[in-house]
Amino acid sequence: MFEILNEKLEKAIKKITGQGKISEQNISETLREIRIILLNADVNYKVAKDFIENIKNKAIGKEVLTSVTPGQLITKIINDELVSLMGGKASELTLNSSGITTIMLVGLQGCGKTTFAAKLANYLNKKNRKVLLVAADVYRPAAIEQLKLLGKQIEVSVFSIDGNNNPVEISEKASDFAKENNFNTVVIDTAGRLHIDEELMTEVKEIKNSVKPNDILFVVDSMIGQDAVNSAKAFNEAVEFDGVVLTKLDGDAKGGCALSIRSVVNKPIKFISTGEKLDTIELFHPDRLASRILGKGDVISFVEKAQEQFEDKEAEQLEKRLLSNQFDFNDFLKQIKMIKKMGSLKSLLGMIPGVGSAVRDMNVEDSQLVKVESIIQSMTNKERNNPKILNGNRRLRIARGSGNTIQDVNRLLKQFTEMQRMMKSFNSKGLNKFKNIKSIKYS
What we know:
Blueprint: H1 3-14, H2 24-40, H3 45-59, H4 70-85, E1 101-106, H5 113-125, E2 131-136, H6 143-154, E3 157-159, H7 167-180, E4 185-190, H8 198-211, E5 215-221, H9 226-239, E6 243-247, H10 256-265, E7 269-273, E8 281-283, H11 286-293, H12 299-309, H13 312-323, H14 329-342, H15 345-349, H16 367-377, H17 381-385, H18 392-402, H19 406-425, H20 428-432
Parallel strand pairs: 1-4, 1-5, 2-3, 2-4, 5-6, 6-7
Antiparallel strand pairs: 7-8
Helix pairs in contact: 1-2, 2-3, 3-4, 4-11, 5-6, 7-8, 9-10, 12-14, 14-16, 16-18, 18-19
C-alpha cells in the first residue's frame, strides 16, 4: 500500500543529502515536496500542514554529525513525527480477566466488517479466549450466512436468531447466551449502510446502550482515502468509538487515511487487516508502520509472523540440521509451506530492511513458490535427501511430472546448491545469534 509514498519520500529526502547542515533554505524545497506528496496521498490538509511545520521546527539548525548525513537526520525526524502522528504506541483491546468482554464493530457497508469480525475472533481464539460471534447485521443479504461460514472455518460459534430483524434484541440475547455457555468474549457484527444516515446511527447507539461494550471498533476501508476520515468523524460523534480498524491495507490505497485518521478523531488505530485470509490481522504498531513507509522494513513483525508458524521443537531440529549440513529438499519444502502461511511473498520481503525498495518494481508472485513446491514434490524421497543423484534423466522426469521445464528444474537445483554452500559457511556461533530470537523485544 505504501510503495508509492515510500518511493516519493525517498526521492524528496535525497535532495538534501550532501549538505553539511540543515537550514531553512536547503530544507524548504524538500518539505514543500513532502507536503505535496502527503496531500496527493489523501492526507488531511490540516494534518499535513502541522506535520510539515513540526518537521521544520525540529530540523532547522540541526548540526549534522560526522557519522550521520542530512538525509539520515531528516529521515529520523520524519520517522519520529510519523510515529507520533499515528499514536506513538500500540493500543491493545480491553479484555476482562473475568466475566465477559464485549466488542462491537461499526462502520459503513462494504468496509470488510464481517470478514474482520471473523479475523478478530480467530486472533482472540489463539489467545485462549472463548469467542462468540454475533450476527447482528440483519439487512445485508447473506451477511448472517457469511458470518456462519467464516465461523465454521475458524471453529468459532456464531449466534443468530432466524426471522428476527431486531439487532438490539439479538445482541442482548447473545450476551445472555454467552453468560450461560461460559463464553468470555463476544464480538458483535453490526449492520452498515452505503452512506451515513440517521437510521444507522440510531441503531448502533441503541446496541451500545443495551449491551455496553468494552470496546467499540470503527472498521473502515483504507481504499476510500479522505472519505474514511470523514466517516470516522461522523461515527465518533454519534457513538464515540474506542479505536479504529483499517482494512484492505494490501490494496492500492494511497495511504492517507492511516496518517490522518488518528489525528482527526483522536482515537487510536488498533488493528490493520492486510489480506483476505482469516489470519491476516495485525495489532497496529505506529513505529513499525512508520518504518515501512520510509522503506526501512519491519523485522519485528517478520519475526513474529515466523514465530507463529514455527514450533520450538521444529526450530531446534532445523538448527541441528543446518549446523550438521544436513539441510535437504524435505526441509526446504517445510520452509516453503511455513512461508506461504505467513502471507504474500512480496509483503514479507517488504518487511526486510533494504529489500522492500529492491522488489518494489519486481513481479514477485506467490505462484513462484507454488512452482518450486511442485518441482520438489515430483522428486522421490531419495532424490530430496540427496540432490546429487539428480542426473539428466531424473531432471527430465521431474520437469514433466511437475509441469515445468528442464530449465526450471536446473535453476532450482543451482539455487539450492548455492544456498547449501552459504549455510555451510555459517558456523554455530553465527547461527546462535538467531537461536534466542523469541527474546527480542521491540522498544
